[in-house]
Write a structure and sequence with these properties.
Layout lengths: L1 H34 L4 E4 L2 E9 L2 E8 L13 H16 L4 H12 L3 E8 L5 E6 L5
Parallel strand pairs: 3-4
Antiparallel strand pairs: 1-2, 2-3, 4-5
Amino acid sequence: MKKSIFKSILVVLLFTLTACNLSTTKLQIAVKAANVECPIDAGNGAIVTEIYTEDNNVVYKTSVDENELVSVADFDNEIVISLMKAAMIESIQNQNSKEEKEFIELIKGANYNLVFRYIGNSSNYQVDIVISPDEI
């Protein structure tokens, strides 16, 4: 009796680990494919220079032209970050592209965060806006 319970638990655990690894592998492949499109002009002096995974995050590394926009250091306050994050979540949730929707589902399926990393081109100041899978 004990062996069959142990086997059942082991089978469930292995299946879960395999499913998690498959989601992560698919996501990493998709991230590499998205990164090939870089640099991407995001408008208003922001350029996505790289898309990559780091820990349990998909990171959009974005260079900000501080002469055209504002200093990235000005982003680094709770109100601005909260407003930017809300706008990003709304934009993500309103995606029309099938590919973008599938990419977001891969991120959620792998339980990764989305990190929008803004780096000032003059100051090198960095601000991260983190969106969890539950917020997408």
